[in-house]
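Catalogue entry: protein
Contents: sequence, fold tokens
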Amino acid sequence: MKKLLMVVVMLISFSLVYYTFNEKNIDEASKLNELNLSVKADLKLNNFNVYVSFENSKFTDIYQQIGLYAKENDLVVIALDNTLDDAGLYTNQNYYIYSNHSDLLNGICIDVDGKKIDFSDLTGKQYYSTHNSKENVGKIKILNNGFFDKIKRKINIYQYNALDNTGFEQLKYLYLTIYSKDDGFINDLQEYLQKTDNSVSVSNETRVHDEDIENNYIFDNLKNALIILIIIFVTVMSTIIIRKNRQYMIRRMMGTSSIKIAGYEFFRIIFISQIIFIITNLLSYFVLCQDINKATIELLKMILPFNIYFAGILLIIFLFNWIFIYLSCNLKYLNNKNYFQRLFNIQMIIKIVMIIFLMTPFITSLKESLPYLMNYLKVKDLKEEITYLYFLNEVPEKSKEIFAYYKDDCYYADFTDYSANIRGAELTNDYESIYPYPYIHANEYYLRNHNIKTLDGKKFDYNKYPHGALLVPEMYKDQDLSRYPSSVEIVYIKNPGEFLNYHVEDIYYLTNPIILLETEYSIFETRITNLGIKTDNVSELKKELEELNGIKVNIINAKYYYDYFMDQSKSALIEFGVNLGIYLIVYLTLVFQSIFTYLEEKGKEISINYIFGFSRIKRHINLFMLNLLAYAIILFGSFKLNLSFNNRILFVSCFMLMEIIIEIICIIYFENKKMVNWLKGEKL
């Protein structure tokens, strides 16, 4: 059991660093993603969302005048621009900043190659970036910059004058975030700009000031880890104390104090636990953080106190052991035959409390990980199919013309109608309006990959349905289809099998869905962003779309969604594996301890019943009844948790079944290997 404690200590120590690393990394990325809020905290000023519109001036002239006004009035100005890169894979999130505050970006880790950028310069176009390039003068760093590759985002922080390179010259408006003590500058800025253009209008679009970014993840992770450690240590050590209770009594009678007994028995294991915790903590840190910078030093300052907290927990546990030995090693208990019964009762209470405590984090972790774990292999097979597939990343003005042009040689499959319907019903509890059966929209080109056959076994003839059709698998024949489109002819088909979502988003695939065959664009049914165009010449595709639409159309590579899913799947697998490992160790420790304590208490009685010919069920019925009672209490106690009834029932049923299986295994082992010891008058 002491070796098991070491495994638990290592797992907890690693998980604390791992989760803190991940959450801190996300927190740092969020600060960059919400740079407006991050700098607000450092400036100690209010942020105002300002909308500037104009008719007669050029875009360049207006933003330059705003920069001059900010310089004269010591304001901080930030403009934001989001664009996709040429490959349609990464989003460039560009910030353009004017500020006379040298400490504006102090909260961000930036590795500068030389001199820092002067954001009060209205002529320069230098920038920092989260990605390496020859043009940037410094790299923005978080704990793991690979996170930006996962979310396919590049964050760049430019000097204000770089707005000149955005390609927005045709715009007649400008959105800005301006930082000031109050909004008194709004009218003044408008008057300043109207000196050269009377059409300029400046308005304050701020509804409510954004709240600062706050996180309690460190406290939550630490609290859960320490609770698990306390329960495991107390369970194991109290078991050791009661098992050796009589030995301690004899040593007490020989004059050894309780604290010496506690020190002799537990000091070594407590000391080793502390050393293992520290070593695992530091090793985990150096494995995860392969660079020393401002961000990693901040993380180190966050995780070092974990070792102090753990030392405090071990001190409390040692004091508990000392007091427990002092109280339990009384002469009046020397001939007490029921001290194992007391231990069993304590273990049952701890088990009930611990399972209730673990229920919410376990179910939450499982639900978050399940979509990735279940769909990983399905999505993995899509890689070759979607590598050169591009989706529209916006709804163009001439969607109808674009759909008509591409529909015969491009993929169109829309799973979002069904997924949005399911999620909407879950949020509103309006299950009457839900689609009763899986449902997708698709065109002929997408359906060619599937062998669609009518009920008579003939291949489906698309030419017979120039205006579309509702293809209904035979398994739904004679069912209520009133929720599905009735404007097209219904055609019953053989069950068509699985359909994969090339957009790689939840829902990832559907089996035997009802299919709305779309042959022409419908403003009500067609979602043009699900039109997938395959090409190895991106620039030519962009040019073609711009000619069809009249203006530029943003596109995005399907690999964007694929890579994001695969990265999330790997992270989910690691996190769920760590959680599952900790939960199972805790659970199995409690279960095995309570079962063997029960068998040690009732071993003689069970052995005698065996001699008298009692069946195995009758010999052990009390153990199963106690197990049933414990899980009834767990189910009743879980009603205070924010979980659905079905989730609670499923959780309790699975763990109860698992414990029954463990009990059966332990009983068989006991009767085959240990019962003879009892019959000979020996101990387990």
